[in-house]
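Carboxymethylenebutenolidase homolog, pasting as requested.
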Amino acid sequence: MANESRPCPCDIGDTFDYGGRGQEVQVEHIKAYVCKPPASTDKAVIVIHDIFGWQLPNTRCMADMLAANGYIAICPDFFVGQEAWKPSNDWASFDDWLKTRNAGKIDKEVDVILKYLSEQCGAKKIGVIGFCWGGAAVQHLMLKNPHLKTGVSLYGVIRFFEDRSSLLHPTFFIFAEKDDHIPLKQVTLLEQKLKQNCKVDYKVKIYPGQTHGFVHRKREDINPQDKPYIEEGRKDMINWLNKYL
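C-alpha cells follow.
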C-alpha cells in the first residue's frame, strides 16, 4: 500500500508470464521493444513503461495488443540504461531513485523515437500511452509536444504535473476508484482544472472497485471479479486511439 515506507503502489499486481511477439531494436542511444501489425499502417503508438521498466512482460503484452489492433507499437527504455525498480528494492530508497528518473525529462528520447517512427516505420500519426510513471509522462507530453496526436494516461501520478492542465491534444485519463496512490480528490481537482483550462477533447474515467495498475498489472484468470473492468479499460484505450489516430 502507499504509505511513508512504501510511497508507490506499483508492486501491487501480477507479472505476466509472457514472452512477446515483437523484437528489441537499438534506436540511437535507446533500446526499444517494437511490435508491428500484420498489415502495413502509418499509425503508431509510443508505450511508456511504469517504474519496472521497458522489459516488464506486462507492458510488452500491452504493446502487442496495440499491434494486434493495427498500430505500430514501440516501448522504449525511458530510463536509458539505468536500472528499473525491483520489487526487492528497499522502498525507503524509492524517492532518491525516482529523482534520477523524471517523467518530465523524456523529451530528448521522445524526439529520437518520433524520428525513428517517421523515417524507419513510415508513421504519420503517432499517439502515446503510459502506465503509472508512464501515465504522468503522457500528461507531460500532452502539455508540450506538438508532434503527437493523442494520449492515454493510465493511472498517471497526478502530483507530478498537477498545476498544469492546458493540454495540446485529446487525452484520456484512466483512474482506479481504490487507488491508494492517487486519491479521488486529486482526480476531481484534475477534472475541474481541465474543465476550466482545456481547449481540446479530454475524458476522465474512474473504474469502480479497481486498484492501481489494474489495466496492465492484474491477471483476469486470478482476479475474475476484476476481469470486466480490465477488459473495459483496454477496450476504452483502443477506442480512444482509434478515434484520434
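Note for the archive: The chain is about 35% helix and 20% strand.
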